[in-house]
Amino acid sequence: MTHPVHDSAYSWFRLLITLAIATVANVGMWAVIVVMPAVETEFGAGRAEASMPYTLTMIGFALGNLWLGRLVDRLGVTWALIGAALLSALSYLLATLAPTILWLSAAHLLLGLGTAVGFGPLIADISHWFLRRRGIAVALVASGNYLSGAVWPTLLADVLAERGWQAVYLTLAVVTLVTVIPLSLVLRRRLPEEAHGTAAATAQLNARSAGLSPRALQYLLGIAGIGCCVAMSMPQVHIVAYCVGLGYGPAVGAEMLSLMLLGGVVSRVISGMVADRLGGVMTLLAGSVLQCAALFLFLPYDGLVPLYVVSTLFGLAQGGIVPSYALVVREYLPPREAGARVGFVMMMTILGMALGGWMSGWIYDVTSSYTLAFVNGIIWNGLNIAIILWLMLRSRPRGQAVPA
């Protein structure tokens, strides 16, 4: 028996507000990717060293998903959003004052902590308000991450070209404060305690079918998340630098990143609808296989038009993967621990992005080519596929028509 609050008109209104917040809050994850060539030039850094601010951003983003997810479980999402918005704005300001790459990297560690509130914590929060349509709800909120990366770099391209990356960061600090804090106040309503009952019962049935303890399943999903996101990070983190190296320039790379992320938005929406019918595990496996296939296409094609096409295909292939992890967590693990459990798995996927972003830069520095970096991503993707396939074959979860 579902609670009246699930899939209600208020749930959809809350989803709309949450998506708006996510589109602004997540921009801190993408800002450094667009300005990476300018940072490399300003500080005289190598490709791996210039990748460190991104890597530190992702480490902070990972830790923030876990920490802020636990905070959402205890205090609700509004207080987490307000604190994170203030931290993000401060971090943007500190980055503009950086005299060294080390200072800049430290500022991005803090920026990652603040930016994290726009991902796992918001996904965990919205997942409580839906039951029948949880897949599409989670997918739409997760799409805020990609919408942010697709929209803001384009909007701020003129600022970057005319006034430099510091002006971009100051603009983002102001936008974050004036948008996230007022909208967070709209989300003050808390879910009724009795609304957890149906979700808890279904999750318990699914967990029994898997034959794994909650902790074991959580760690297994975390390892799989690292594998898929090391692979995912190669095109996403280095596409701008890759295009610069090929002679196409940073503007072309930014356009390819936008296409990749817009494709990811479409993928996430479609994956959400699929997950409402097939469940998170099947959706996750399908996305992982498609991502691996798309990565192979980067190896033979480096012409301008083919790269536009392959970047779009990659976005369409991989966009639904990370939200599917959150759905698997909600299908198998206790709902009252959703913030912490989703936060942990999101943390592991993000650590995979951080590791992959640095690793690809290091491989480039050693080989002067991104070819082996793509191969490295394909190998890690294979690990992810193996784990999810094993989980799918081990368990045939019940109650998939109504996810937990």
UniProtKB/TrEMBL annotation:
<feature type="transmembrane region" description="Helical">
    <location>
        <begin position="136"/>
        <end position="155"/>
    </location>
</feature>
<feature type="transmembrane region" description="Helical">
    <location>
        <begin position="51"/>
        <end position="68"/>
    </location>
</feature>
<dbReference type="InterPro" id="IPR020846">
    <property type="entry name" value="MFS_dom"/>
</dbReference>
<dbReference type="GO" id="GO:0022857">
    <property type="term" value="F:transmembrane transporter activity"/>
</dbReference>
<feature type="transmembrane region" description="Helical">
    <location>
        <begin position="12"/>
        <end position="39"/>
    </location>
</feature>
<feature type="transmembrane region" description="Helical">
    <location>
        <begin position="340"/>
        <end position="364"/>
    </location>
</feature>
<feature type="transmembrane region" description="Helical">
    <location>
        <begin position="101"/>
        <end position="124"/>
    </location>
</feature>
<keyword id="KW-0812">Transmembrane</keyword>
<feature type="transmembrane region" description="Helical">
    <location>
        <begin position="75"/>
        <end position="95"/>
    </location>
</feature>
<dbReference type="InterPro" id="IPR011701">
    <property type="entry name" value="MFS"/>
</dbReference>
<feature type="transmembrane region" description="Helical">
    <location>
        <begin position="216"/>
        <end position="233"/>
    </location>
</feature>
<feature type="domain" description="Major facilitator superfamily (MFS) profile">
    <location>
        <begin position="14"/>
        <end position="398"/>
    </location>
</feature>
<feature type="transmembrane region" description="Helical">
    <location>
        <begin position="167"/>
        <end position="187"/>
    </location>
</feature>
<dbReference type="InterPro" id="IPR036259">
    <property type="entry name" value="MFS_trans_sf"/>
</dbReference>
<dbReference type="InterPro" id="IPR050327">
    <property type="entry name" value="Proton-linked_MCT"/>
</dbReference>
<keyword id="KW-0472">Membrane</keyword>
<feature type="transmembrane region" description="Helical">
    <location>
        <begin position="239"/>
        <end position="266"/>
    </location>
</feature>
<dbReference type="Pfam" id="PF07690">
    <property type="entry name" value="MFS_1"/>
</dbReference>
<feature type="transmembrane region" description="Helical">
    <location>
        <begin position="278"/>
        <end position="299"/>
    </location>
</feature>
<feature type="transmembrane region" description="Helical">
    <location>
        <begin position="370"/>
        <end position="393"/>
    </location>
</feature>
<feature type="transmembrane region" description="Helical">
    <location>
        <begin position="305"/>
        <end position="328"/>
    </location>
</feature>
<protein>
    <submittedName>
        <fullName>MFS transporter</fullName>
    </submittedName>
</protein>
<keyword id="KW-1133">Transmembrane helix</keyword>
